[in-house]
Every structure is written in C-alpha cells, then in structure tokens.
Amino acid sequence: MSSIPEHLKYAASHEWVELQDNATVKVGITDHAQAQLGDLMFIQLPTLGRHVQAQEQCAVVESVKTASDLFSPVSGEVVAINEAILAKLEDVNDAPYENWLFVIKADDLSALEGLMDSDGYRDMIGE
Length: 127
What we know:
This protein has a 6-stranded antiparallel sheet. It has a 3-stranded antiparallel sheet with strand order 4-6-7. It has one domain (9-120): CATH 2.40.50.100. 16% of the residues lie in helices and 34% in strands. The protein starts with 8 loop residues before the first strand and ends with a helix. With 127 residues, the chain is of the alpha+beta class. It contains 3 helices and 9 strands. The mean pLDDT is 95. The chain has helices spanning 31-37, 90-94, 118-125, and strands spanning 9-10, 15-19, 24-29, 40-44, 51-52, 57-63, 67-71, 76-81, 102-106.
C-alpha cells in the first residue's frame, strides 16, 4: 500500500495536482501510476505557453512496459515544465509526489472540484 498525500487532488487518469497560491497547479503522476508503468524511460512534456483544455492529453510517459498519456486536470496555459526531471527519470519512480512534471496557470479553478481527494483516489485504486 502506497502513501497517498492528503493535501493533493487526484484525477482518475492517475495525475496528482497541487494547487499553488497564484491559481497555478503543479501536476505529476501518482505512485500507483509509476508502479504500474515500471521504470520510466522517456517523458514528453507539454510545450511552454501551450493552452490546454481540461481532460486534454498533453504529455506522455514511456516505461519499459508501456506508454501512457497524461491529461491536463484544468484548462489553462502551461507556464512551467520540469526539464531537470528529464535527466533523472528515476526520481519520478523513486519519489513521484516530490517530482512534478508541469505547471498550468488555470483559466478557472472550478475543474479541481471534480478531482478526487486522497480517500477517493485510494478507493478507486483499491487500497
């Protein structure tokens, strides 16, 4: 059973979301997702400045087992990408909740209301 941080929100597509002070959200993949994927081999991050819609595919993670799309939890502009993680993909496997992938400046934070809290996510993955 993995530790699922209570201060984060979770998407059914296994992204975690952390609301920042300035209507931005950090996005990463959950421990459950990285465990299912296995060792990550490649991450394609979204382009800086790209405007994404909530639920839009915007990034890809590839592992030794498979490739998986990542989806934006909110509509908004990609204002930061974690380029440093591209050189140390194992950090996502080792500490998925400490290693964000991209940040979105949200057009509207109401989309966060549709995400799960830690208990809801734990129930969804059967922990």
